[in-house]
Amino acid sequence: AADDVGARADRIVDELRDVNGHVLVFSSSHFLRVLAARWLGLPPQDGALFVLDTASTSVLGYDHDLSEPIIRRWNQR
Question: Are the CB atoms for 27 and 38 separated by under 8 Å?
């Protein structure tokens, strides 16, 4: 269920925010779409709104600080 995947994504987001540096994450497109939604504070179901192609790259980050998560790049090929 989307809520279960959202809970897993939340754990990853928490771990990522504890890292002081860059992190590379590989996963399925379905999980990464939910991860992006949770990164932005959206419900897990909103991951369905993001298109993510195979072998593409995306960059999550912050605008000014940890309180302003953003998507810097999405679905770059």
Answer: no
Q: How far apart are CA 17 and CA 55, in angstroms?
A: 24
Q: Which of 65, 59, 69, 73 is nearest to 38 (CA)?
A: 69
Q: Is 2 helix (H, G, I), strand (E, B) or coil?
A: helix
Domains and CATH numbers, the chain: 2-76 (3.40.50.1240)
| Band of pLDDT at residue 2, cut at 50, 70 and 90 | confident
Asked whether the whole model's pTM tops 0.90, one would answer yes
Contact 30, 2 (CB under 8 A): no
Q: How far, in whole angstroms, is CA 17 from its chain's centroid?
A: 11
- H-run or E-run covering 72: strand 69-76
